Amino acid sequence: MVFQSPGPILCQLGPLTVRWYGVMIALGFMLAVAMAVRRTRARGLDSDKIINLALICFVAGVLGARLYYAALNLSYFLIHPADILATWKGGLSIHGGLIGGTIAGIYYLHREKLPILTYCDILFASIPLAQAIGRWGNFFNSEAFGHPVADNFLLKLFIPQDCRPMAFRTYSYFHPTFLYESVWNFGLFFILYFYASKKLINYPGAVSCLYLAGYSLGRMIIEPMRVDSIANYMNIPVPLLVSAGTMAIALCALLRIYQKNAGALKQ
Fold this sequence. Notes:
Strand order of the largest sheet: 1-4-5
Mean pLDDT: 88
Helix content: 55-70%
Order of helices and strands: EEEHHHHHEEHHEEH
Low-confidence stretches: none
Structural class: mainly alpha
Number of helices: 8
Shape: globular
Largest sheet: 3 strands, mixed
């Protein structure tokens, strides 16, 4: 099966250019919020608060994702500072988005005196759905692809020559790593939303930790396949290092949550 982008632009509305990248991010966000609202109402909580939380996290997340990406590509953005906020061109780091969104979200929940872990669990159970859909924005931009594959490879992504790294200009087909991550995130969403969030309702924070661990595991598997890792440290992609660290912290926190709440439930 061959995947080939029709191009990054969906349509032109007068002076406004509608890009697939923005459409996929917006679609993913709206569907994830709808699922979070559904779960919030099922638990008898204020759905308006989860909408406010999602909007705040989205804005802070996009800003954090772009600034994180720019920081890891500092040599380019020092020369082209006007491109720092040009998010429609692609270049959003999920890890930066998680950092920015989490900080803003916790601040909002603390200010509103809401149960932080409970609302985080609801939102984090839906976030993989937004990520799964948003990854298709990379497809339309012909970015976030993997190493070259043979012409007879089962799943292959055609990349236009001007989007290929110089070292791979003679190759046409590449690993569709955007697809691998999209499928992984869809699976993570179904596990967290339809199973874990119900089974672990008495363990506040557990779903959030499972999301961080599960998403990080997926990145650790897929990242080595990519040819466009935004930075390296000692020849190891920075996203891989960050994912490994995040997964370790999340698993330790998950164990602590289980020990704390299991003891409380026995009393």
